């Protein structure tokens, strides 16, 4: 990994997808500007939170004109990286934190991602929480709408979530908030 790749500027491409089968998927953002490419691996929760943050930012900067669907039926997964995207990008890392901002003057949205870095403290490996972002890119609001739509589709093509506890519904799903859907026996 090279630190000089961290600022790609105005991204030609910034998108999201998932690799693998539901229940064993890995989530990623991928971006490109010219010959510089990046893949950032995220947790499902990162994708959910980023999608929500992008939607909130879009609603604020468009004064509510950018709408986002809450639920999708018969969703197709996003297309993923284009065929020209290299198998080995210039920059690839597991994301620890994300930052989202808006440059009002240029009317561009800024996305920054910091990698996970482990350090040893008192004989234990812990994640550093003061890591500087390694990836930084600007996207247009139109690109942000597409990114948000694709993140929503990525989430919708996975295992369904329980409406009560929010956990993935495996078969059979035992929901703690509904007492596992089982009657209570009192002796």
Topology:
Blueprint: E1 7-10, E2 13-19, E3 26-33, E4 36-42, H1 44-61, E5 91-103, E6 108-115, E7 118-121, E8 124-127, E9 135-139, H2 141-156
Helix pairs in contact: 1-2
Which whole number gives the mean pLDDT?
A: 84
SSE pattern:
EEEEHEEEEEH
Percentage of residues in DSSP E strands: 25-35%
Q: Give me the side-by-side strand order of the main sheet.
A: 1-9-6-5-4-3-2
Distance between the termini: 62 Å
- Distinct helical segment count: 2
Please provide the count of β strands.
9
Q: What Rg do the Cα atoms give? A: 19 Å
For the biggest sheet, the summary is: 7 strands, mixed
Task: Determine the structural class based on helices, strands and strand pairing.
Answer: alpha+beta
The portion of residues assigned to helices is 10-25%
Q: Outline the low-pLDDT stretches.
A: 1-5
Shape designation: globular
Polypeptide structure, described:
The protein has 187 residues and is α+β, with helices and mostly antiparallel strands. The chain has two helices and nine strands. The strands form two sheets. A seven-stranded mixed sheet has the order 1-9-6-5-4-3-2. It has a two-stranded antiparallel sheet with strand order 7-8. Helix 1 (44-61) packs antiparallel against helix 2. It is globular, with a radius of gyration of 19 Å. The protein starts with 6 loop residues before the first strand and ends in a 31-residue tail after the last helix. The model is unreliable at 1-5 (pLDDT under 50).
